[in-house]
TrEMBL record:
PANTHER family: ALDEHYDE OXIDOREDUCTASE MOLYBDENUM COFACTOR ASSEMBLY PROTEIN, XANTHINE DEHYDROGENASE SUBUNIT A-RELATED
Domain of life: Bacteria
Domain (XdhC Rossmann): residue spans on this chain: 159-299
One Pfam assignment: XdhC_C
Stated name of the protein: Molybdenum cofactor sulfurylase
Amino acid sequence: MSLERDALARAVAAEGRVVRVVVAEIRGSAPREAGTAMLVWAEGQSGTIGGGALEFEAAAEARRLLRDRGSARVARVALGPGLGQCCGGAVTLVSEVFDAEAVAALTGEVHARRVEGDRPMPLALRRALAGVRGGLGAPPVLLKEGWFLEPLALPARALWIWGAGHVGRALVGVLAPLPGLAITWVDTAAARFPDVLPDGVVPRIASDPAALVPEAPAGAHHLILTYSHALDLALCHALLVRGFGSAGLIGSDSKWARFRTRLGQLGHSPAEIARICCPIGQKTLGKHPQAIAIGVAAALLSEGVDRIAARDIAG
């Protein structure tokens, strides 16, 4: 887990001062892993540190921190009868107030700061920071002697979803909350999108969606599921010309057979065409839009974006 600057910046831009509550340390059994965070503001919150009484109390404490004009608090919480929970472990929560100035200060690969006490930075953190400067990469979350170090999130992976029909909406609904994805959602008319979009999703409207393909990063990942086979084919062709990280197409085996033939006639080699995976999802989950979305999300979480497609479900 890592500190996601983009999500924090959006929340601060919308709400002003926001408290970020992060699981800094766990002992024994706990609802979420170290580095998990949620954002809390006066009238709402986003993300989850595990739900239940732990999250309820943490959110209440975060709002008290806002009201008291504080900056940071550290809480060590036993997950036992006192909270009405039976996990048996314990967590340490770090709650910090962020405003626009604090977000702007989040630069580099890691964020190290004192969150309690007045002790100097401990040797463990100094060594971790030296490793980052030496090219060893960001360390995991580390809480030591009142100092807290977190890796800053890497730039999000670009995911372009082409089509805002039933499957497109299901995919965006399932994928948008996942960390590390920057979703661009494309369709031919504004009326095809829902009235409210998830945070961080960028809508694009184009009567000819394939004309937007050159604007996607060369390493972006794509899911193609428009209402038109002609649009789908044009997008496949444009992506093969442009280049992509991965691409998945909704459809049946017979649709993909026709597309392979047409794409070959357009000048693409069999090896190039084979980089587009069709169909997407997991056959065992079925063909319901949400089932397809769950299959794609499961592949994202377990195997990475390059494995978003499976060859055993008809669209």
